[in-house]
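Q: what does this look like with flavin-adenine dinucleotide bound?
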Amino acid sequence: MLQAILGDLGSPPGRAKVVRTESVLEQHGRDFTYHAPHLPHAVVYPESAVEVQTIVQFAADHDIPLVPFGVGSSLEGHVIPIKGGISLDMSRMNRILEFRPGDFIVRVEPGVTRSQLNEAMQSSGLFFPVDPGADATIGGMTATNASGTNAVRYGAMRDNVKGLEVVLADGRLVRTGGMAVKSSAGYNLTGLFVGSEGTLGVITSITLKLQGIPETTVAARAVFPDIDAAGRAAVSIVGAVAIGRVELVDKLTIAAVNAYKGTHYEAQPTLFLEFAGSKVSVNQDVDLARELCFLEGCGQFLFESDSKARAQLWEARHSAAIALMARNPGKKMMTTDVCVPITELPGALFHARETMERYGFEGSILGHVGDGNYHAGFTIDPNNEKDLRALEAVNSEIVTYALAKGGTCTGEHGLGLGKGKYLEQEFGDEAVVLMRQLKQLLDPVGIMNPGKGVDFLNR
Amino acid sequence: MLQAILGDLGSPPGRAKVVRTESVLEQHGRDFTYHAPHLPHAVVYPESAVEVQTIVQFAADHDIPLVPFGVGSSLEGHVIPIKGGISLDMSRMNRILEFRPGDFIVRVEPGVTRSQLNEAMQSSGLFFPVDPGADATIGGMTATNASGTNAVRYGAMRDNVKGLEVVLADGRLVRTGGMAVKSSAGYNLTGLFVGSEGTLGVITSITLKLQGIPETTVAARAVFPDIDAAGRAAVSIVGAVAIGRVELVDKLTIAAVNAYKGTHYEAQPTLFLEFAGSKVSVNQDVDLARELCFLEGCGQFLFESDSKARAQLWEARHSAAIALMARNPGKKMMTTDVCVPITELPGALFHARETMERYGFEGSILGHVGDGNYHAGFTIDPNNEKDLRALEAVNSEIVTYALAKGGTCTGEHGLGLGKGKYLEQEFGDEAVVLMRQLKQLLDPVGIMNPGKGVDFLNR
Ligand SMILES: Cc1cc2nc3c(=O)[nH]c(=O)nc-3n(C[C@H](O)[C@H](O)[C@H](O)COP(=O)(O)OP(=O)(O)OC[C@H]3O[C@@H](n4cnc5c(N)ncnc54)[C@H](O)[C@@H]3O)c2cc1C
Ligand SMILES: Cc1cc2nc3c(=O)[nH]c(=O)nc-3n(C[C@H](O)[C@H](O)[C@H](O)COP(=O)(O)OP(=O)(O)OC[C@H]3O[C@@H](n4cnc5c(N)ncnc54)[C@H](O)[C@@H]3O)c2cc1C
């Protein structure tokens, strides 16, 4: 029956392109992770908010699931259409709509990628700081409340999205927020849609806050004897210095990156650091950070001074997850994403490593430790039921530890298919009931990315 | 009938203190503004979240309006119980619950005031930056998404609240957010309650992000020939310098402050500036800002170097609104609160002054111009219908101008009784419908601060 309705799609919902070839369906039916793939019935490529409205109305009328799709780089099965239906690929909505350099503001369509955005602003002296490792879309980043290496200085998406246009599940178009620096006008709808993982509506435009490129930027690598020492150093640095970036990469990951990118970093737990600001203050910050690293037994503190070596360093860091996958062709990713109050980080890292060892898994640990956010990442054959169950137990122990310390089950990836089950443990029943009521209010028919996030019981 | 039910209040709702003396009812039935006072039937002082739950359940069962009350410093009639009922005074819930200096986090009850909080943290090297002019409660500041002079650097309440405990209109207690730096777990309930003006629930605890006290702080006053020049200077400073504070105070206000505080500032449009950071970077910033001021015709650029003169300067700035009131005893305040994209600020200031002149009103202009947020403030006899209507027209023209430039009708005060009518003009009908649906979902009986904010039609 769903098939029959989708047969109509060739013509009706506006003039949006509809594709149903095997390869395109497959590409929209899976991600990098262990979650089981499931094909959509069709992939639709809207080119405007009005087309999105038509498609959503069509889907609502016929009770067809609708899954917004950016580039599919999310890490918890977010884009997998577990109930089939339409995968709504936003890649054709990739225009930069309005750029106001003097106001540090840009408004874009959701299919714009972060590299596309930063290229477009290159000559302006401005940039958009949020930088997940993948070249994700601004729409996907907004929908997952993504962050990345720059968050310790500039915050996550929620801190950088000023306003949205969203097509709700009944086809209504809602505008939220605006271009002023701040506002106390009415309920904060913007914040509600940021991080909603396609479950409350389709985002069709995003107003972003931009940053000025700092006068001076210096990058460094600090190599440590063990991961706990690196974690402790990160905590003291964050407390003392207005750090630009502080990223932890463990031995295993460094080795994988070297193999994948042809780099020659020493395969030891390493902090990748960046300092930014005026020349004088950067020099002060660097001196202080170096001292703090040495106090924790850091053996080498190396500068990447020219911009090429610096770019290479961050390129290497960004490709860490991909490098790990490349090491294990055919396997899929499972990654934890807890975030703890910063003073709890060394304990959390210790606990994670201990847990992995106890279960006998070789995993990599890396992350945005300046935020107290780290990933324990594993590659796995998703058909190996035993490993899958054991890894889920590891995952669950790591989350339980983080929650007991006041942390969150997901610092940046979002709930997707994998983390919804921890929501009640994190917030208590009442908050989850309220989240479900919000879902019910905004998507009464349940067409928007069903089974994901807060809607995890609906599988 | 309401009276009869409230007769019960002496004993039932927990053991919370209930007061019904004339003076206390009056104190909870008005604010500083032109909005007509209206008495509550009783003032109740809860001492715990459990007591709040009992009171809210009682109010819900008997359909009694409930208006949370901090110190009543809000500027749009927020706390006036226009339908009577219970004024829920949070002043006895004023404990600091948990202080984690290493995580830059504190958790407080809503009745804690900002000066109480900062005093409690004095020896830690940390402070909480959000600073409305009044010594408001953290609960009231959260409920209005308040900001102040520090917002240009540290953001408004929404940027600094990490989590909440809220008693919903049916007595359920919901916990939102947490202590991690960031999270992508579920819908952002925290952001929904920040700025909800007591219309969605009663906030019973707030987790705040703290800041380290900067190494060096320098304050300065830049005196300008006219207000437009001061506005233009503010725009260039914000674009070029990581400024700490940049406040505009016009002639009239300076004169009022001098009279009220015994200061001797020159009665000319003035920017009050603050620079903060490392010593070297502050020096650089000051030099650049001074140059930018002189480019706009600034006649004097004066430092307040020692900490006493600096404190006096900010004390003077903070008391500007009170000083204006003191000049006109017996009168009440009406203030605009628009916030525009920063490049639109000089035009907006020009338009505001021109509008005031056209209508023949002497008003003061002052504000947090680093955010593009300024207030045109008037004192008025609220019984003078003609003046009231004319001033409402001024207010409306100023808002209409700001909205046309991509701004908001309220940068920091909130909607209260006065600004709800601009919501549709600002966001369009659909967003306002959605806001009303949220109100309906969370407060179906309509007991929570009825008639305020989004609920403005319900008078
Ligand atoms: C190598 C690698 C490194 C990564 N590093 C990071 C990192 O450092 N930090 C981080 O936060 N993440 C990271 N990620 C995860 C991923 O990049 C982010 O989750 C990103 O935000 C996903 O964007 P996307 O365009 O791929 O969205 P998709 O994966 O296509 O979609 C993600 C979710 O958003 C929804 N969505 C997409 N577009 C819209 C729209 N227009 N309206 C409504 N909903 C929409 C989808 O339905 C889905 O639920 C990494 C991933 C990889 C593969
Ligand atoms: C001289 C002066 C200067 C000011 N300067 C500024 C400024 O620079 N920036 C700025 O933003 N504001 C400013 N204000 C306005 C005012 O200080 C702020 O709005 C402040 O946030 C109000 O706090 P309060 O404790 O007085 O709250 P109240 O006025 O008591 O209450 C405000 C609103 O919050 C609700 N509320 C209070 N407590 C709770 C709770 N626990 N749970 C749920 N809802 C609650 C109330 O119902 C009401 O709707 C100024 C006011 C004055 C008088």
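The mean pLDDT of chain A is 94. The CA atoms of residues 229 and 353 of chain A lie 13 Å apart.
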